[in-house]
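Technical appendix A lists one of the benchmark inputs used to test multi-chain prediction within the project. The record comprises two sequence entries:
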Amino acid sequence: MSFFEWLEHSRWVTAISESGWMYPAAEVAHFFGLFLLVGTIAVIDLRLLGLAVRRQSVSEIAQNLFPWMWTGFGIAVVSGFVMFATGATGFVSNTQFRIKMLVTLLAVTFGAVVQRKTAQWDQPSGIPGVAKFTAAISLALWIGVILAATEIANYSSL
Amino acid sequence: MHDALLNFCKWLENTSWALAISRSLWVYPVVQLIHFSGLSLWLGTIAVVDLRFLGLAARRQPAGQFAQQFIGWTWSGLTIGFLGGALLFSASASAFFKNPAFRIKLVLILAGVFYHLVVQRNAGKWGESPAIPTVAKLASFLELALWIGVITAAVEIPNH
């Protein structure tokens, strides 16, 4: 039996699949985590691109928002894993899901890079071009994650 | 009244652009993306401000000042999210109209938007002193609960 078959049929996962409300609750948590995550990283990226909340310095905004970006991500990962587990064998072989996981990995990596570099990029002479470029890619990647996620619902047999 | 609205929905879903959305392979996901992006901005910024008033986030900055900086993005997010939502609705207007989960979602959204106006109005006053008044904490908690309600209703739409 593969790991994914074992996971799907383990006791706690079956309990979740059979309960009427647990999967929807995981969905709601997943969306809430996603909105928190994308909302905060979008504001940071848009600030780096010089398009948002210019009154405050990038470092200040980043300091305020990054904890919430990662909280949102954490909620999304945990709830996402719960949903994944209930249909592990189907999800793991689904192309759209695999694409979403890959894009998410890339988006998270870029988010971490942005976080690492914001203090350095917050220069009095203005935000360097490489910062704007990275922020644009970060934004594009999260848009990619959302697109990939909607494709799973629209095109898979799940 | 009900029939008039239903007829409007049927007219809506047969407009050329609504048909384009429902028939094209790529337009629908893009419209979904617009909807999600907009509402991420709306909810993300609202959530962070509510969490600040609940004393759980960004405590370094005075709450009133913190809330102030997001106002533009909050309402831009709502505008974009609403536009995307209206387009999604138009593609299957009569089905959405009859869907009880969707109706609840719409009522909650309406309530939520007006509620946020009230919260935003008071944010300056509530965020003046370092000690956040209890009414502010209650209002923020209620707002988070309301929008979690909207998400729940949205998640239930496919099930009805």
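Residues 58-86 of chain A form the longest helix (29 residues). Chain A has one domain: 3-155. Comparable benchmark entries are summarised in Table A2.
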